[in-house]
Amino acid sequence: MRAAEQAIDSGGPADPATLKNIIEAIDMQTSISAMKKYYSDEAWEQHRRYYEEGPSAEWRDLYTDARALLNSDAAGDEAQALVQRCYDLSRRARSGNPEVQTDSPEAWMDRANWPEAMKQRAAEFQMPRVISFIRRAELTSRKSCFSARTWAKMVELSNLPEEEKAAQWRSKVELFHDLEGALGEDPVGEIAQALVARWRAQLDWFTGGDAEIKAHLRTGWSRRRYWPDSQHWQIERLHMMSYERFERAADFLDRAIAAADAPKVQ
Question: How far apart, in whole angstroms, are the C-alpha atoms of residue 89 and residue 27?
Answer without folding.
Answer: 29
